[in-house]
Amino acid sequence: MIAPGTRQTVDLPVSVLSDHTPVSMSVHVIHGKADGPTMFVSAGIHGDEVIGVEIVRRLLRTPHLKSLRGTLIVIPILNAFGFINHARYLPDRRDLNRMFPGTPGSLLRIFHGRGDVVASGDLMAVVCDPFGENEQEITAPFDGIVVGRAVLPVVNEGDAIIHLARVQSMKRAEDAVGDLNDQLSDDPLFDEDEII
Ligand SMILES: [Zn+2]
To answer: Where is the Succinylglutamate desuccinylase/Aspartoacylase catalytic domain (predicted)?
Structure first.
């Protein structure tokens, strides 16, 4: 509760790194003495664009705020990960500017790799919150062969996790994958050392 005529900085927890380090987002709330509209200002959605952060700093210091009617909500750095790393995007290269309204990310464990043959109903992966309190199992919707999988340990709603190919003949698909593996192992890429 922020009383009229006061201002406060609220640290909103936004994420937990894989080692449980908490990440928060500072929200400045300036609550005018008199009633009025609420305005929201943000900066730093692209972590390498620091000019907006400076503009917001000046806005937060302007004397006019003393006679503010209504409420001003200001977030100087939306993309804390990018700001710390001098990078535009989130650590997994997604653009925070394209993520509204968004959903919280989850941890992903995958039990199958490319080339694995799976049967309908096989456990493919588990998605859970960082504390493992809510786990959701993902099973194969049909018999098939894994042709692609997510490589990042964090997933968001809408992300593809496993690409499962439906095949007409499992035997032929297995043979084709076996042939491919044989070709790759017969003709391996040179090590850099061998080329030099
Ligand atoms: Zn931008």
So the answer is: 35-104
Tell me the pLDDT tens digit for each residue of 68-94.
999 999 999 999 989 988 999 988 788
Hey, what domains does the chain have and what are their CATH numbers? 7-98 (3.40.630.10), 106-187 (2.40.50.100)
CA distance 34 to 4: 7
* Residue 46 alpha carbon to ligand 1 centre in Å: 5
87's tokens: 């990078």
Q: How far is the CA of 57 from the centre of ligand 1 (A)?
A: 17
Q: Ligand 1 centre and the CA of 137: distance in Å?
A: 37
Give the CA radius of gyration of the chain. 25
Q: Which residue has tokens 């504390």? A: 131
The per-residue pLDDT for range 39-78, each reduced to its tens digit, is: 999 999 999 999 999 999 999 999 999 999 999 999 999 9
- Secondary structure of residue 72 in the 3-state scheme: strand
Measure 42 CA to ligand 1 centroid, in angstroms: 11
Span from the CA of 92 to the centroid of ligand 1 (angstroms) = 17
CB atoms within 10 A of CB 112: 18
Q: How far is the CA of 53 from the centre of ligand 1 (A)?
A: 11
CA 61 to centroid of ligand 1, rounded, Å: 23
Q: Under a CB-based contact definition with an 8 Å cutoff, are residues 135 and 128 in contact?
A: yes
